[in-house]
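Record type: ASSEMBLY
Status: queued
Input:
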Amino acid sequence: MSLSVTLQAALQSLLAHQTALAVAAQNIANAQNPDYSRQVARLKASIPIPDPSLSDGVTWGQLGTGVTVSEISRQYDALLLTALRMSSSRVAHQRTLLNGLERLNALLSEPSESSLNNLLAEFFEAWRDLASNPENIGNRAIVIEKARLVLSRFQNLRSQLDYEKILVRMQFETEVEQLNGWLEHVARLNEQIVAAKTAGLQPNDLMDERDAVLRQIAERISIQVFEQPNGSVTVTASGHELISGAHFRSIKVVLSPEGIPSAVFSDTGENLPLGEGILAALREFFEQVLETVQSQLKALIDNLAQAVNSLHQSGYGLDGSTGEPFFVLVNGEWQVNPVLIEDPRKLAASSTGSAGNGEVAESIAKLAEEPLAGLNGQSVLGAYRNLVGLVAARTQGVQNAHSAFSEVQKFLQNRRDMVSGVSIDEELVDLMRFQQAYLAAARVIQAVDNLVNELLNRL
Amino acid sequence: MRITPMILARQALSFINRNAEVINKSLERLGTGRRINRAYEDPPGTVLSMRLQSDIATVEGDYRRLEQALPYIQAADTALQQSISVLQRARELVLQAGSDTLTEEQRSAIANEIVGLRDELLQIANSKVGDRYLFAGSAILTKPFLMDDAGNVTYYGDSDQLSAVMSNGERIAVTLDGRRIFQDVEDVFAVLKDAISALKNDDASSLRNDILPRLDNALSQIIRMAAVYGAQANRSERTMDTLLTQETSLRAALSPVLDADISEEVTTYQLRQVTMQATLFATSRILPLSLVDFMA
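Status: finished
Output:
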């Protein structure tokens, strides 16, 4: 054996612990980076050499030559990452739905003094007041005014729902654009990671970045991720390949005739299965909530107008006029018949033509709680209450799902951090350990140096 | 378990958020005085409150309509009572005139008085409150009783009636079919006309045997109608009391659904504030802990 072997071992120790210190420094630097996975320098004894001085007479013994860093490993749990991605899809889905539904609740603004429910109730009461005072011009004017308030509220709601649809469509388009960016990003990272691995490097930080981007994708659509032996990942959405190696397929938005947005592959035009996530939630909100609410509101006002009209046309105004509709359609919008606004005496409250008869007005007032065939046997007020109740119940359900899924998400994030997160205290302890080892190695070099000096001086 | 600073921070933040959410909701309820500020906070409660609110509007409407109808009902009641006393006076006079001891001159004086009574009755039958004739049925803008030169009175109203309409479908008559009061089985005006001509003809026996029983019939006809109408006037006033009670109980039912329970909210608010303080205190003590502080 020779002193040079010892010197070599001490040198290796110095270098290995220097690397370990550098890794600890990197960990500490990234302690607050949520996407970072903790790295660990794996120390391994270097290959021993046979030494004649350790011979037992038959074979030579082996002598250690020091330590090397065999790899800088990345601490992660692939299963947890998969679970986290699924949960991201789910949370993003509910969050998007909840945002939309909360806006819708604000639009309907029930319960409040100025709500449509109260406007409708006041409209029907105005008719009942007219039935009790059919000759009174003031009561006629009130009926017309209340009718205009109801109509303007309906029109207001409709145009706000239209605007909401435009917003949802725009958000869908922006999200798809971003999705394309993220898909391309993963494909690039795949390329870089494969290149690094081929060169024998450990692209830990690139892999962290790729996981972060995959989570961004998962927030938009449900994906499945398969890691390949060469280090790249293949990403599919319900069996449709999105990314393979350095290749990705871009997505574009197409609109149905009703304006409902969906995502298709740009190359083949096939539908992209959305699963859960922001895109699916936007579509669901558009199709199942906005469309439904809008069509139910339309059914409500159409049935109300038609029912009022058919009663009104059977009645007589104060001037004996008859057959006049109360509501008329102007460019697809219901309005109070301008003839009646011009001359409220033409408002037909009477069933006989006599000034003191208010039977038609009374029948119209009764429509409030009368089952209508066009509303599936619900009354006007009942149908509207149901609509508000359904939207509210849906919102409450989504809110509950969102907070439940968020809890799961937090739990999974904590589990991930238990494996991949950086504990500063732990790194500090490591720092002390490596520092001591480094100092000890330096002391070995000093000892060898002393020995050599001693030897040289004696000669 | 490895607990990293990120886990601690995430937990602390989520506790703080949860407390802040509850405090925010309490604050909102206290600020608005409402328990349900958005429909989805309580969907069944929202639907119930919408139902109760439209019910309250209906009950208020019923009360308003009765209140408006009441002056007409009372005026008609008074008019009917007046016509009863007019007819009673006419009956006394006819009874008096039926006696054989009266002179022709005296009968003619009585005839003049009855002419006055008939005119008064005609005026009562044409009673008007505001624009409405009370006894024209539903033809409320038409003067119901007109007398021609021969002294025959014709009814121009109809057999319908104007009613105050209640939400439960009940109808409270505001104007009446005048014919049923004045010209039903017995035509009151015709009786008086015949009485006048009998008086002028000095026909005491006809006064006794024909006019007097017919006057009795006419009187009982009006008294019967007045009783029906008076009963309805009474009922209207009672209904108004009932409506007030109904409104109070509807509002009482609405309050726990819609209104914030102030004392409960204040308690929640204070309790949560204590929890929040504890959370913040613990967080501020635990989060900064690090080995760094203890290394030389």
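Annotation: The first strand of chain A starts at residue 39 and ends at 45.
Annotation: The radius of gyration of chain A is 38 Å.
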